Amino acid sequence: TLPSGRTAYRQLADFTSNMASLAQQYPTKAKLINLKEKSLEGRTVQGLEISHNVATSSGKPVFLMMGLHHAREWPSGELTIEFAYDLLQNDGVDTRITNILEKSKVIIVPVVNPDGFNLSRTLGYEMKRKNCRITNGQLPTAGQCAQSTNQSRGVDPNRNYSGFWGGPGASTSTTSETYRGPSAFSEPETRNIQSLVSAHQVTTLITNHTYSNLVLRPPGYAAAANTPDETMYKALGDQMAAQNAYTSQKSYQLYDTTGTTEDWSYYATGGLGFTFEHGSSFHPAFSNVPNYYFGSGSTAGKGNRAAYLLAAESTINPARHS
Ligand code: 0X9
Ligand code: ZN
Prior knowledge:
Blueprint: H1 12-25, E1 30-34, E2 46-50, E3 62-66, H2 75-90, H3 95-103, E4 105-109, H4 114-121, H5 188-198, E5 202-210, E6 214-217, H6 230-244, E7 247-250, H7 261-269, E8 272-278, H8 289-294, H9 303-316
Helix pairs in contact: 3-9, 6-9
The chain binds N~2~-sulfamoyl-L-arginine and zinc ion.
């Protein structure tokens, strides 16, 4: 059973109400945050900051976890919010969690791309990937993303960050699933994460996606050199992959990309960012999600929960992983 007890994929309103409930239930430890900009359809993008005495936790190193950059990748939001439930429910029970919340702060943003997710999860356009940008210069009104050309409309949020933006593995075609946008950080979804990271000491981040059972680290394209932190980076990636039994590798070994989240955040801040690609399809039956979280078979009792705990602990003492 998942920490929240859920048995079906959340809709956008469920994420919103669940985060509000957690903040209300754990007022000293969980703080609801509104990211800087609304989505193109006017939705507020929310997150939770989680730490002991969260109101005065501004100096603590941060582990940031995100979901749903890509609309159809529903488990990525579930795993992100379930980690928040787990931390809050098991603080004072699990000594690793107590230590994490004492010495660090965890920030979760389960739905980075709410317009796209709403279209995919609720309005029936299940395979929507990108945001709802209309590329003729207009802004969409609420629900307009669901109109006829919705599937091809939009900017890929995971090609719109500034890291190597303009390079290979991203498209200049507005109808491509990997359209990079007219300029780096042209979209509110990526600017929200940029300003969130800039306002905190984010020393480790995980951006959850589906699918392929991978733990990916920069660089995102083959012609780029290894990061200067390759030894430490690989060590932490490999340790996390030992928990969830995914393959730990450099991102470009999957395929070239530019403009992805951690190819910006790592080179901009030095914090270690990873993409996790979960499972074997974009959104399988919900009954798979508890297995993703807690592990199953050879990873029973480990899974992504254990990988996330390692990531959070790495913020407390990064050198421990080198
Ligand atoms: O293409 C992406 O944005 C990610 N895959 S997904 O199916 N979730 O869209 C993978 C990006 C990982 N980075 C590289 N492959 N360089
Ligand atoms: Zn994705």
